Amino acid sequence: MSSPPSPHAQVVVDLGAIRHNVGRLRELVSEGRSQGPLAMVVVKADAYGHGMLPVARAARAAGADWLGVATGAEALALREAGDTGRILCWLAAPGADFTRLLEAEVDVSAYSVAQLDEIVSAAHETGRVARVQLKFDTGLSRGGAPRTEWSALADAARAAEQGGFVTVTGAWSHLACSDEPEHPANKAQVAAFEEALAVVARAGLVPEVRHLANSAGAILLPGTRYDLVRLGIAVYGLSPAPDVRTAEEVGLVPAMTVRGSVVLTKELAAGDGVSYGHTFVATEPLRVALVPMGYGDGIPRAASSTAQVLVGGARGRVLGRVCMDQFVVEAPAGEAGEDVVLFGPGTHGEPTATDWARWCGTINYEIVTRMGGRQTRVWVGDEAT
């Protein structure tokens, strides 16, 4: 059983910001084109910690043509919640049961002939024509068929299509270095993807959509946009490449705010150590506040003595180690019961998720996706309510 939510910790998600970001990104990727690519909003991993179902509804309201998920369970949860639009699911282990996905009219990905055979078996069993997208590894060396198997996969898909068991709706791949637009891997992957598309065409397949671009590709590499762009972190208002182009420069609004409250303040004397291991020792008298949130709530332990929060209208640094349930922060003006904002849009002086990523030596994707535990999640700006 999961822990009960805490009244002292909240993840606040602005669905209005989600709608704005989807609209802004659709506008951006359409620049210079009479008709822009379709937009897939990626809502895997509980929408990067923002809440899959509310985010999916907001994304659809903003014009998302597709939703993208990693697992079959995520796709089925969207269907059970009433989503009737196009959904692509791309991750399955050998022996996966594709029958429910086909019955739910979810597009599924095939990385290999063996996986395609499993999808065809599910089509036999259900009497449904499977909608299949072929994924090709063009250089990420992760999911997707390796180059040596491209022809075999395309030929098998064509045979399955001629047999009436599948419709090949897409051909796709994933970029490895799109957050570094000058990286030579980007041109190499575009060239490899073009080769994969040629293999698909030679097999006699005419996919509905060809897609390569993730958020960074969609924003920074116009040549990767093809027929559809997969929009992930940017939908949530965060830049996939903040050192190249910030969220503000793109016109995005961060959707997540994480807040807690002060439960105790106290005065430290010079020489007093803070938290486990006394990794921080006061060098002068210092006023501190206790915040009842910790790594059990998704707060990175790597934030110890590095991250900052907004408390009492001013920035205060986390002091000492972040614990499972609490951390200590310098708070010259904070009082018990007062709000503490860990991160948010940054419009009121609070840090952003990208700031936290920099302090913790990680990426903003991880910061927002890991938030949860006992934190209460609240959605605001919902047009439906």
Which keywords apply here?
single chain; 385 residues; alpha/beta; 9-stranded mixed beta sheet; 8-stranded parallel beta sheet; elongated
In short, what is this structure?
This protein is of the alpha/beta class. 30% of the residues lie in helices and 24% in strands. The protein has a nine-stranded mixed sheet with strand order 11-14-17-16-15-18-10-1-19.
Description:
The protein has 385 residues and is α/β, with parallel strands linked by helices. Helices cover 30% and strands 24% of the residues. The protein has 12 helices and 19 strands. It has helices spanning 15-29, 44-49, 52-61, 72-80, 99-103, 113-126, 150-162, 184-202, 215-220, 247-250, 353-360, 364-369; strands at 6-14, 38-42, 66-69, 86-89, 107-110, 130-135, 166-172, 209-211, 228-231, 256-261, 264-268, 273-274, 280-281, 286-291, 308-311, 314-319, 327-330, 339-343, 375-380. It has a 9-stranded mixed sheet. Helix 1 crosses helix 3 (52-61). The chain is elongated. The relative contact order is 0.15.
